[in-house]
């Protein structure tokens, strides 16, 4: 076994919370505090209440072999950036240690170490120098960097005039081309356009292909899944799960969906909506087969949506609902009343409650929202609310005949179908 | 590299570019000449006052601008500090480097001034590089101390110019050491700048050298530098957290 490229032991990073860490206070405050201690311990109005220590990272053990591509996921504030900063040696750990073997190229937040007054060209050299490269080495890669960032025309513009996307393009190009042995990238690519993001992910893959180690943070699960051979989930500074990306991501999304599921909602004050308001959605709930409120459903199992609305319009109503993905808002499934011929909403004055029952939910595992819509028969919106009733779909692994979870990367929906072998004597297609 | 960057930035931002590095000492010299030379009629060891005061201003401006640059270097470049790894000492050192470049420029002007007064320096000039190095080292030491302080206490930033102002008048820049009564001189010599400024003057103007003061300064410089570096290294782990 080769020595790990990154080896982290019992790593902890403590920050102080409160309005100001004791170290950033002004001399005036320091003098004040001193005076107070002198006189007597009278509490001061200036003393921030919360100054208790806070662990951004706690007892973290992690070992990454050379050539591994690892995705780091977790909620906002989980400590991902803190870990990257420690590995990039920008901040020092409070406890434990981090061993790093090899030259580190890091891209921590936007504009890594650029000087706003200098031009793109000058910044490339500056950045290279900070990474410990000689001028000749940088010059050798200069054209490649510029070509990658596609910023030829802006090379002699001070970077303060760059758009944020251009900033990141340049920063990424520099970090990825100065041949670091370990590439550390925080969630910064988000501001790049789609084409550039793809290019960066490609480049990271390439870097990894050359036996270099890549560690990157992303909230883009698809990117983590496609690029990484391993994912690490951090929460509240601790390692929750480490392993095969699909499994870690599934657990991560599942955990949070569970915490955030909202199967019952009062919609009267819901802000994300449009329409004339001549009819209004009041309440909505998701129910399981037994009629209980439920935020968690099984794939190909039953689901019931219950709506309550109030209408004053003389038009005939049109009711529909759509299920969207929570991460990118993709509409996955539509339920429209016309598709069930037995039901006619008609003209409604006053309140109504509607139940929509689905026998076999064809959604893949993941988290979803609903869009609920009241339209006129001419399809003018009366009330359309979006992103409500968050819920999850899971495989019931105990009972499902499938040994693996079906996630959205395999297709947005899934359906049971009739599968069979066609016997040899049957013609493959009908010959007339 | 950082020095080069600081210089580019500095000269890019100011329209007049390098002119600025020259105008500042010259203007200061003119004002001091007017106020202290003409109005207050301070003595100047028998040298024309402008020549006298500029010879003192050279090391003084090197020192004060180096200290100021170095002490602000960390907070002015918090963006670098929190994003890339490199030895943190580079930042204040680069600040001192910029001041050295400015020094060279204003030294060029001084040569012009000396030529005008027909007092071209002799072999004493050869003593200049070590003296400049000594001044820069002292400045770096003080700058490092102030830099760590500025990161911790933001208002130190406002104290630094004030401190420099006081220090200026505690150093024999506008007046000669000879103005101070003999039995108080030792007090003046506690200030390393006294010896350094005196030595610069004697090197440039061929005045008698106060060897005692220079020795004191030469002893203080490495001590200050060592203290500055030691304290800086002790504190640098925390910079990125608080800056
Ligand atoms: N310099 C600092 N001083 C005090 N607290 C800090 C400092 N830097 C980070 N923190 C705290 O540490 C915690 C972890 O922050 P971190 O930036 O690592 O989160 P993250 O996982 O990167 O989140 P995100 O997904 O939003 O980028 C946060 O609660 C943050 O407030
Ligand atoms: Mg972050």
What is this structure, in a nutshell?
Mean pLDDT of chain A is 82; it is low at 19-24 and 41-50. By secondary structure, chain A is α/β, with parallel strands linked by helices.
Sum up the overall morphology of chain B in one term: globular
Strand order of the largest sheet of chain A: 5-6-7-3-8-9
> Major beta sheet of chain B, specifics?
none
Low-confidence stretches of chain B: none
**Which structural class do the helices and strands of chain B define?**
mainly alpha
Q: State mean pLDDT of chain A (0 to 100 scale).
A: 82
Proportion of beta-strand residues of chain A: 25-35%
CATH homologous superfamily (4th level) name of the largest domain in chain A = P-loop containing nucleotide triphosphate hydrolases
Provide the β-strand percentage band of chain B. Answer: under 5%
The CATH architecture category of the largest domain in chain A equals 3-Layer(aba) Sandwich
Q: What CATH first level of the largest domain in chain A would be assigned?
A: Alpha Beta
User: How much helical structure, as a percent, in the residues of chain B?
Assistant: over 70%
Terminal CA distance of chain A: 65 Å
Distance between the termini of chain B: 23 Å
Parts with pLDDT < 50 across at least 5 consecutive residues of chain A = 19-24, 41-50
Find the structural class of chain A using helix and strand composition.
alpha/beta
- Count of beta strands of chain A: 19
Determine the CATH topology of the largest domain in chain A.
Rossmann fold
| Count of separate structural domains of chain B | 1
Number of strands of chain B: 0
């Amino acid at each position: 076994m080769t020595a790990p490229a990154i080896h982290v032991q019992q790593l902890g990073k403590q920050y102080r919370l409160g309005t100001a860490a004791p170290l950033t206070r002004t001399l005036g405050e320091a003098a004040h505090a001193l005076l107070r201690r002198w006189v007597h311990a009278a509490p001061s109005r200036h003393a921030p209440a919360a100054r208790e220590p806070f662990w951004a990272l706690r007892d973290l053990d992690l070992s990454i072999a050379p050539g591994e591509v690892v995705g780091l996921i977790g909620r906002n504030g989980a400590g991902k950036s803190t870990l990257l900063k420690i590995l990039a040696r920008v901040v020092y750990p409070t406890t434990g240690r981090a061993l790093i073997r090899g030259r580190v190229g890091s891209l921590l937040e936007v504009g890594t170490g650029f000087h706003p007054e200098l031009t793109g060209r000058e910044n490339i050299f500056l950045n290279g120098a900070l990474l410990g490269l000689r001028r000749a080495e940088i010059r050798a890669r200069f054209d490649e960097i510029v070509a990658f960032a596609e910023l030829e025309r802006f090379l002699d513009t001070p970077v303060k005039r760059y758009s944020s996307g251009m900033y990141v393009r340049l920063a990424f190009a520099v970090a990825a081309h100065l041949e670091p042995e370990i590439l550390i990238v925080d969630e910064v690519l988000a501001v790049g356009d789609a084409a550039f993001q793809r290019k960066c992910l490609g480049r990271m893959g390439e870097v990894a292909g050359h036996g270099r180690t890549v560690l990157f943070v992303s909230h883009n699960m698809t990117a983590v899944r496609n690029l990484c051979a391993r994912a690490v989930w951090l929460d509240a500074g601790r390692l929750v799960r480490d392993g095969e990306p699909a499994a870690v991501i599934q657990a991560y999304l599942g955990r949070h969906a569970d915490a955030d599921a909202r199967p019952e909602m009062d919609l009267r004050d819901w802000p994300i909506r449009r329409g004339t308001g001549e009819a209004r959605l009041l309440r909505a709930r998701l129910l399981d087969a037994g009629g209980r409120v439920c935020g968690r459903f099984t794939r190909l199992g039953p689901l019931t949506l219950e709506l309550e609305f109030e209408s004053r319009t003389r038009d005939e109503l049109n009711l529909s609902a759509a299920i969207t993905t929570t991460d990118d808002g993709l509409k996955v499934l539509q339920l429209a009343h016309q598709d069930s011929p037995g039901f006619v909403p008609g003209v409604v004055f006053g309140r109504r409650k509607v139940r929509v029952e689905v026998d076999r939910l064809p959604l893949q595992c993941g988290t979803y929202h609903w869009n609920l819509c009241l339209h006129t028969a001419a399809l003018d919106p009366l009330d359309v609310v979006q992103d409500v009733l968050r819920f999850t779909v899971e495989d019931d692994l105990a009972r499902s005949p499938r040994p693996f979870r079906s996630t959205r990367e395999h297709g947005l929906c899934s359906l049971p179908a009739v599968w069979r072998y066609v016997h040899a004597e049957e013609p493959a297609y009908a010959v007339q | 590299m950082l020095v080069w960057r600081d210089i580019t930035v500095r000269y890019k931002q100011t329209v007049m570019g390098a002119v600025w590095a020259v105008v500042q000492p010259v203007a200061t010299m003119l004002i001091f000449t007017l106020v202290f030379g003409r109005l207050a009629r301070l003595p100047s060891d028998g040298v024309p006052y402008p020549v006298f005061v500029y010879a003192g201003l050279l090391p003084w401006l090197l020192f004060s601008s180096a200290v100021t640059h170095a002490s602000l270097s960390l907070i002015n470049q918090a963006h670098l500090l929190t994003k890339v790894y490199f030895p943190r000492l580079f930042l204040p050192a680069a600040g001192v480097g910029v001041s050295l470049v400015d020094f060279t420029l204003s030294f060029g002007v001084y040569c012009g001034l000396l030529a005008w007064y027909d007092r071209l320096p002799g072999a004493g000039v050869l003593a200049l590089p070590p003296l400049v190095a000594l001044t820069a080292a002292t400045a770096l030491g003080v700058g490092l101390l102030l830099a760590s302080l500025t990161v911790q206490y933001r208002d130190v930033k406002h104290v630094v110019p004030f401190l420099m102002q006081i220090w200026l008048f505690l150093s024999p820049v506008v007046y000669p050491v000879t103005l101070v009564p003999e039995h108080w001189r030792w007090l003046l010599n506690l200030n390393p700048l006294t010896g350094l400024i005196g030595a610069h003057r004697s090197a440039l103007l061929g005045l008698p050298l106060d060897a005692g003061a220079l020795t004191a300064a030469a002893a203080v410089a490495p001590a200050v530098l060592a203290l500055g570096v030691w304290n800086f290294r002790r504190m640098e782990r925390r910079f990125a957290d608080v800056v």
